[in-house]
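Hi there, hope your week has been kind to you so far. Would you mind checking whether the tokens look sensible for this chain? I owe you a coffee for this, so here goes:
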Amino acid sequence: MTAQPSSAGACDACHAEIAAANANSLHSNLWGYKAVIERRGQCDFETTPGVQEGFEHNCADCHTTCGQCHVSRPVSVGGGFVDAHRFRRTPSMVENCTACHGSRISYDFTGEDVAVLPDIHYARGHSCELCHWAEEMHGDGQSTNPSGHYEHRYEVATMPRCEKCHVKEIMDEGHADDPEWNGDYHAAHLEGWTGVELQCQVCHSQPYKNCTSCHVQDPSGYTIEPSVVAFKIGKNTQPQTRGEYDYTVVRHVPIHPDTYETWPLALPGYSELPTWKYASPHNVRRWTAQTTVAGGQSCGYACHDRAGQAPRGFYLREVDLQDELGADLIDAAANAGVVIREADLH
């Protein structure tokens, strides 16, 4: 008996095109994790001793197969049928999607933190497939990388973009008198009237979870510092795929120089990548702390700082890379290009 028949080729007889694309999908192979580990570790999964073994032992269970989305719960969260042997065309948001993507995405999307509201799409009854279509989930086979596959989720051509539904051309045509669009604000921040173009979430996301210092344990499991709910804007760390934005929302990722020491794997390239990285929080609202005028203060209070003022507000600043005594944190050098400095203020 085959425990996981979809991974053994049971689906491709009828769904050959989808199965072929899925063979190189990020969901099936975790290429994104591997790419960043290779860069920070200055290693190669195929030739560096211990890396592939450590990854298989600690990380590989998070990949998925056809059946783990359309029949059962993922193995990484215990498995088990979702609805007996019935195949579900659309996976269950709770039993499939957020069963894996729970700690950050579900937390943001459903508004689990009492300090924030649920994502407006969730509040209006929508689930993941509103934005994440089958082509993206299965793999679209459009990567132009020499490797033949995507190495980062933001490279995926069919991934969601706000403009798919909230058409940017509407803003371009000028609707200054339309309160639904607030044309002047969109023109200034999306079209660069101010000299800086912003990712949509800079104005329309709420505080979200940030994590630090994850460590792989042996034989299995992780230790991680408590997460912090916060909101930070930094310089775009993903210009190769999101080059139209100057400033974006950034999230601190759970990495530390000795994260993989039990494999064993050192990270000599730890500072080659920032630890505050481009983020797309799943807690979008039309009105947020950045867009709401309250008590005589508006978005300018937190974003449009002026030289000479103490660092405050939503910008990622030098002070965010220092401890309570003013000493640089271990990842300060990695994030030097992400912080917004006095000279950058608008």
Observations:
- Strands lie at 208-210, 215-216, 222-223, 228-230, 233-235, 247-252, 276-278.
- The mean pLDDT is 86.
- Residues 196-346 form one domain.
